[in-house]
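Methods: holo model generation. Sequences were used as deposited, without trimming of termini or removal of tags, and paired with ligand SMILES retrieved from the corresponding compound records. Each pair was processed once, and we did not select among multiple samples. The sequence and zinc ion SMILES for this entry were:
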Amino acid sequence: MYKIIKWDFLFNVFLKKYAAITLWPFIFIKSDCPPHILIHEKVHIKQQLAFWILGFYFIYILQYIFFYIKYRNHWKAYYTIGFEQEAYLVSHKNFRENYMKLMRS
Ligand SMILES: [Zn+2]
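and the model returned the structure below.
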């Protein structure tokens, strides 16, 4: 249903602040990707299937643009995207507290 591909070059050169990215049917990860991030990416695989792949990207990008215009801050926009919230709530136990701290900053 999906394939995990280790690709350090991608993260060392282009996606320096990330450890993984999911582009169905592939989960690209850094070789030192922590297990909880892999769980996060597996949530994105389920979301992408639920929204027929392109629907996921359409909604994801629209939400990012909307929240970026609202907050003028990449990380606030990123963490507010509904798909990211669901994935972080599943994979990161302190997400809610960290999110609230970020949004108050
Ligand atoms: Zn994510």
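Residues 40, 44, 84, 87 surround zinc ion (CB under 6 Å).
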